[in-house]
Design goal:
Layout (H helix, E strand, L loop, with lengths): L7 E5 L3 H12 L3 E5 L3 H8 L10 H10 L3 E4 L2 H7 L2 E4 L14 H11 L6 E5 L7 H12 L5 E5 L9 H6 L4 E4 L3 H10 L1 H4 L5 E4 L1 H32 L3 H9 L20 H15 L4 H24 L8 E5 L15 H10 L3 E5 L4 H4 L6 E3 L3 H5 L4 E4 L11 H7 L4 E4 L6 H5 L4 E3 L5
Parallel strand pairs: 1-2, 1-4, 2-3, 4-5, 5-6, 7-8, 9-10, 9-12, 10-11, 12-13, 13-14
Length: 439
């Protein structure tokens, strides 16, 4: 039996999941090879340049490459043949019907099957529908009937912007397998994490696959719920900040994901809620709550645009909007399903000119938005604007100089879609101010 330090790891996919997984395991002392078909991305990583923005990632990559524990390649063959555990961390983008597109997972499995040398654990990190592990195993056995392997479900629970901390100090580690050899390998692989206290939950593969979707759907539900409560607060003259705080003190509820705003976005919640609905539909099971969660979130962006229009007296025709924030959340450059885009598009449709600034996400945004002027900083964005819209709560947007903003703007209007500021503070500077759920 190999010792913990002798276990070798390969990750297929050097995107968000695969890269963070590989880099963090290497920092625990494992020999890791990250494989990606994108030569440009691999060359970037070899040069110490990150293809994604994630706090702390660059330092970890450089440290472990220098130590000789972390490698990057476009060739799967050598990495797979030496690996004891191969993590599949490729994308599962939504198909047109909302289902998860598994073409990259299945392509990786098909190529991998004939490359294995000795018993190998194939751990699926990608978020996949229930039964995907069965399909992967069947495909691999069809391609390589004599290969010795076990397919395991090991879903990731990484928050963008906090992925390093989430991986190295996780709430839990979920491992779905009924294969005793695979269970032993995965237990040894995660043993260095046990000193940090996370419980390791062993279950069957299908339960593990569903668990990931259930967790994300529940968090999305909390977000849509508090957004509806925020709307009710506005209607009856209550304060959603106090409502959420009071709710969160109940240990059965908890305070996380009870911050009202323009709706959830990113690479997980929109995709996973819709995929869960597809799973339920195909299984003949009802999922009415999640259906409403998705519907509420879809409608949220338009209502935020209408809030800005109302602040501007019912029209934004020929007005300049300064959009602060484009990423779906701070500390990431990810703009997938970001609420900022549909809000911008709705305001443009209503006749507004849009200027925008985001500390990290502007380059990513240029491929998705048109007729937007990108600024150098928050004040450059606000100069000559009729209204500011705070869409992403980056730290540098939390302490704006409202006296200076009042001097450089055409009109003093501020739409705080993240409830960053106290209303009385902004209004004390003679700004017309609206927020979420605070009458």
């Amino acid at each position: 039996m190999k010792s913990i330090r002798d276990l070798k790891i390969a990750t297929i996919g050097a995107g968000y999941v695969g890269l963070v997984t590989g880099v963090c395991f290497s920092d625990f002392g494992y020999d890791v090879t990250c494989v990606d078909k994108d030569k440009r991305k691999v060359d970037q990583l070899k040069a110490g340049q990150m293809p994604i923005f994630e706090d702390g990632l660059e330092a970890l990559v450089k440290r472990n490459v220098k130590a000789g524990r972390l490698h990057f390649t476009t060739e799967l063959s050598d990495a797979a043949s030496k690996a004891d555990v191969v993590f599949i961390g490729v994308g599962t983008p939504p198909a047109e019907d909302g289902s998860a597109d598994l073409q990259y997972v299945m392509a990786a499995a098909k190529e991998l099957a004939s490359l294995l040398d000795g018993f190998t654990v194939i751990a699926i990190k990608s978020t996949v529908p229930v039964g995907t592990g069965d399909k992967v195993e069947a495909l691999m056995r069809e391609v390589a009937p004599d290969a010795d392997f076990a397919v395991v479900s090991n879903p990731e629970f990484l928050r963008e912007g906090a992925a390093i901390a989430d991986f190295t100090d996780p709430d839990r580690v979920i491992i779905g397998t009924t294969d005793e050899r695979a269970r032993d390998v995965m237990a040894r692989l995660y043993r260095p994490f046990s000193a940090l206290g996370p419980p390791t939950v062993f279950t069957d593969r299908r339960t593990s696959e569903l668990l990931k979707y259930a967790a994300n759907a529940y968090l999305a539900t909390k977000i849509s719920f508090i957004n509806e409560i925020a709307d009710l607060c506005e209607a009856v003259g209550a304060n959603v900040t106090d409502v959420a705080f009071g709710m969160g003190l109940d240990e059965r509820i908890g305070s996380k994901y009870l911050a009202p705003g323009p709706g959830y976005g990113g690479s997980c919640f929109p995709k996973d809620t819709k995929a869960l609905l597809d799973i339920a539909k195909k299984a003949g099971a009802q999922s009415r709550i999640v259906e409403q969660v998705v519907a509420v979130n879809e409608a949220r962006k338009q209502s935020m645009a209408e809030k800005v229009i109302t602040l501007c007296g019912g029209s934004v025709q020929n007005l300049t909007v300064a959009m602060l924030g484009l990423a779906f959340k701070p500390d990431t450059d990810d703009v997938r399903e970001t609420p900022a885009f549909p809000i911008i598009e709705a305001l443009q449709k209503a006749g507004a000119r849009v200027r925008a600034f985001d500390p990290e996400a502007m380059e990513e945004s240029k491929d998705h938005l048109s007729n937007v002027i990108y600024a150098q900083d928050a004040y450059d964005c606000a100069r000559g604007a009729d209204v500011i819209v705070l869409a992403t709560e980056w730290k540098q947007f939390r302490n704006l100089d409202f006296n200076y903003l009042g001097e450089i703007m055409v009109s003093r209007k501020f739409a705080d879609l993240r409830n960053v500021y106290a209303p009385e503070h902004v209004r004390s500077h003679d700004f017309d101010y609206v927020s979420i759920g605070r009458a």
